[in-house]
Amino acid sequence: MILDQFKLQHRIALVTGASTGLGAAIAIAVAEAGAHVACHGNSRSPQATCDRINNAGGVAHPISGDLSQPETPRHLVDQTLERFGRIDILINNAGTIRRAPAADYSDEDWSAVIEVNLSSVFRLSKLAGKQMIERGDGGKIVNIASLLSFQGGITVPAYAASKGGVAQLTKALANEWAKHRINVNAIAPGYMRTANTAALQADETRNRQILERIPAGRWGEPEDLAGAAVFLSSQASDYINGHVLVVDGGWMGR
């Protein structure tokens, strides 16, 4: 049956940035579809997300680490393999944003954003992809891109550069790994109601301008990504490679 292709039973997923917001919603969604989930958190513990999954009859395990540090991706992969024995699904959701005019943007902020949003995505994908290749039975990697994978934004040069890089990295890895039955794709969320967009939501003028352009007429909620995340993690997406799926209420089509 076609609905069986969306089920994730017997799959192991690692979801980064799963403490709150988009990552928590994605971790819960793949768990509801049947996956066992390693939920990563950094400054905030992912325990609440794990508790919600476990209390609903799923299986989740908290792991932690600072993705601004180059050694953390290996640490997260090792923790997941130690707990579950394999990784079938990697969802690179963790991200950060720092705002300042480009002329005043510090090297420190640039490096921190690029490290978390792009370099850690490559390192995690490399490590997870290597064990998928060696295992020989495929896997799924889903990167969280952004509307700024396509647009430049304002006062977020490092974020725009990192998310443009995520889109291109997605395609580069898909080109290499499709032959190994590893599907590498991305989701580009639109304007979502999360902590990263709190400043925009609080700005009366920018909030109005954003809502006027979104055909759906509202900010996205983290749960709006659930279906896309499950789809790209499942057998239903086996012939989709290197795609960046926009989930934006129609913003890009306006």
What does this entry look like structurally?
The protein is about 40% helix and about 15% strand. The chain has helices spanning about 20-30, 45-55, 70-85, 105-135, 155-175, 200, 205-215, 225-235, and strands at about 10-15, 35-40, 60-65, 90, 140-145, 180-190, 245. By secondary structure, the protein is of the alpha/beta class. The chain has eight helices and seven strands. It has a single domain (about 1-250), classed as Rossmann fold. It has a seven-stranded parallel β-sheet with strand order 3-2-1-4-5-6-7, sandwiched between helices. The chain starts with 11 loop residues before the first strand and ends in a 7-residue tail after the last strand. It is globular and about 50 Å long. α1 (about 20-30) links the parallel β1 (about 10-15) and β2 (about 35-40).
Topology:
Layout: E1 12-15, H1 21-32, E2 36-41, H2 47-55, E3 60-64, H3 72-84, E4 89-92, H4 107-135, E5 139-144, H5 157-177, E6 182-189, H6 198-202, H7 204-213, H8 226-233, E7 244-247
Parallel strand pairs: 1-2, 1-4, 2-3, 4-5, 5-6, 6-7
Helix pairs in contact: 1-2, 1-8, 3-4, 4-5
